[in-house]
Amino acid sequence: MIIVIKKDATQAEVDHVVEKIKSLGLAVHISKGKERTIIGAIGDESALASTPLEIMPGVEKVMPILKPYKVVSKEFRSEATVIDVEGRKIGGAEVQVIAGPCSVETKELLLDCARKVKKSGARILRGGAYKPRTSPYSFQGLGEEGLKYLAYVKRETGLPIVSELMDPRDTELFCEYVDVIQIGARNMQNFRLLTEVGRVKKPILLKRGLAATIKEFLMSTEYIASQGNTDIILCERGIRTFETSTRNTLDLSAVPVLKAETHLPVFVDPSHATGKWDLVAPLSRAAVAVGADGLMIEVHSDPENALCDGEQSLKPDKFDSLMKDLRAIAAAIGRTL
Fold it and tell me: Is residue 77 part of a domain?
């Protein structure tokens, strides 16, 4: 249920409405836009059946949210959410690029890569310290040591850090070292993990599951938002189909669909979608053209010897060339990069 507050409502009137909703056992989410303040009453709405909220002071109107995902829907908030990551605005007019190696390997390699992607225009650094791999015998990441390397490189370059969290028990550790917590495709429906990160005060980058529908993707997003954290970045990274020429099938239609359904920013990860470095550039260009708010691109200084996903990583010079193309495309659709 959405309760729209009048423009001239006092804070006391808003507080009174909030207290009334909470007294009925419902959760409250407040969205303050340029024109209106909206209060979302989340939970069993039958509790509101005998409570005429419309007559309460300060209330303009009451409307039901028809979507099964409540807090993340455009019905709840019509204005686009803009997330601030250390001064980088995600979801605004500027298209943001997250770049870096798939996994943290050495401090020296990570620093070299970070300096090069920053010079090319990337604003945020990615790097996996804990790596979910299909085979238990593959490189699994450096763990906490990898997080320390990321923190060191941030101090040296000023780039905020994105890294993937796999276990709820490591949440506190990630909050210490990481600026944006990534939840990977394999954990998109790990509801305990989603609930846990919904309670932290860090932006969350949630990747779409390998076989998830848009509705399932947004319902997972709702698990995070329902706990109070609405700083969520959605990331399309390809879905599993019958096609075998690429690792996954990049669903670029998901970008405008998600932008129509939710107020949250939408990113695209062409590296994991295709699994092939030579397909990353054309699909990155297409993603910006179709309206993505950002990209997540794997870049490695020595992909031939990478411990993880070297075949899909761009070399720094290729990444630099791509960034020039992306600036032109962004400008053509009225955005910056």
Answer: no
Query: Do 52 and 134 sit in the same domain of this protein?
Result: no
Residue 186 lies in domain? 83-332
State in Å, rounded, how far the first CA of the chain is from the last one.
Answer: 37
Nearest Cα to Cα of residue 309 among 254, 248, 226:
248
Domain-located, residue 69: no
CATH number of the domain residue 31 falls in: 3.30.70.1140
Residue 133 is predicted with a pLDDT of 58
pLDDT of residue 48: 77
DSSP assignment, residue 89?
E
- Which parts of the chain register pLDDT below 70? 131-140
Domain membership of residue 73 (yes or no) is: no
What CATH number is given to the structural domain containing 165? 3.20.20.70
pLDDT given at position 154: 97
Q: Within 206-308, where are the H helices?
A: 214-225, 254-261, 270-274, 277-289
Contacts of 7 (CB under 8 A, 6+ apart): 35, 36
Q: So what's the pLDDT on residue 136?
A: 65
Strands laid side by side in the 37-42 sheet: 27-32, 37-42, 2-5, 59-63
State the CB neighbour count (10 A cutoff) for residue 281: 18
Residue 71 lies in a domain: no
**Cα(22)–Cα(2) distance, integer angstroms:** 14
The total domain count for the chain is: 2
Domain identity same for 11 and 147: no
Q: Which two tokens stand for residue 64?
A: 């039901």
Residue 204 has a pLDDT of 98
Which helix (H) or strand (E) element contains residue 313?
none
Q: What is the pTM of this model?
A: 0.88
